[in-house]
Amino acid sequence: MIAGNTQIHALIAGCRANDRASQKELYNTLKDYAVKICYRYQNNLEQVEEIMNEGFIKLFKNIHQFEESRHADVLASLKGWFKRILVNTCIDHYRKNASYINGQMLSEDAENIADKQETGIDVLSYKEIIEAIRQLSPAYRTVFNLFVIEGLTHEEIAQHLNISVGSSKSNLSKARENLRKILTKKTDHKAYVEPIR
């Protein structure tokens, strides 16, 4: 595991020289991080691995573009740079497969779904919330992640996914509604299974 900037600088230099040992060490260092990013967009573990590996190929191919000398914490900066590569790879994968997903793009009619207050959310763990997000359909999950987690605007999401702004808003609204139902079911189940002491 990489301990400091000196080691990460050496590793990056090795990757730029196509040194397989350096690439393997960087892969092992960033693999868990990459899986977590891809896991938010895809619920098929085989496809998570495929997207992650494609992201690593892009990382190694473009590592000469990363300017580590501009950052105090090189590993954190490299992770941020790699995250953009992974998210874009997830978007590309979604776009490539969107034509095979049936009935996921909603009309703009569903845009005005009323918001309701969540209850019992505090009893859920981070892992349970991420698992609930993964239960959303690919279209809803992708828009939800891009808007809520990555902080993209509906205009940016529409451009990335080749959909209308209205579809982005609609998918987010429906994702929130479906997520609310999933989480409510979980909290109701927890309240029933785990009585208050």
Automatic annotation (TrEMBL):
Pfam families associated with the record: Sigma70_r2, Sigma70_r4_2
InterPro entries: RNA_pol_sigma-70-like, RNA_pol_sigma-70_dom, RNA_pol_sigma70_r2, RNA_pol_sigma70_r4_t2, RNA_pol_sigma_r2, RNA_pol_sigma_r3/r4-like, WH-like_DNA-bd_sf
Record keywords: DNA-directed RNA polymerase, Sigma factor, Transcription, Transcription regulation
Ligase recorded as keyword: no
Domain RNA polymerase sigma factor 70 region 4 type: 127-179
GO cellular component assignments: DNA-directed RNA polymerase complex
Top-level taxon of the source organism: Bacteria
Any one Gene Ontology BP term: DNA-templated transcription initiation
Domain RNA polymerase sigma-70 region, residue spans: 26-98
Gene Ontology MF terms: DNA binding; sigma factor activity
Residues annotated as transmembrane: none
Entries under NCBIfam families matching the protein: sigma70-ECF
Family recorded in the similarity comment: Belongs to the sigma-70 factor family. ECF subfamily.
Name assigned to this protein: DNA-directed RNA polymerase sigma-70 factor
Species, as recorded: Puia dinghuensis
Organism phylogeny: Bacteria, Pseudomonadati, Bacteroidota, Chitinophagia, Chitinophagales
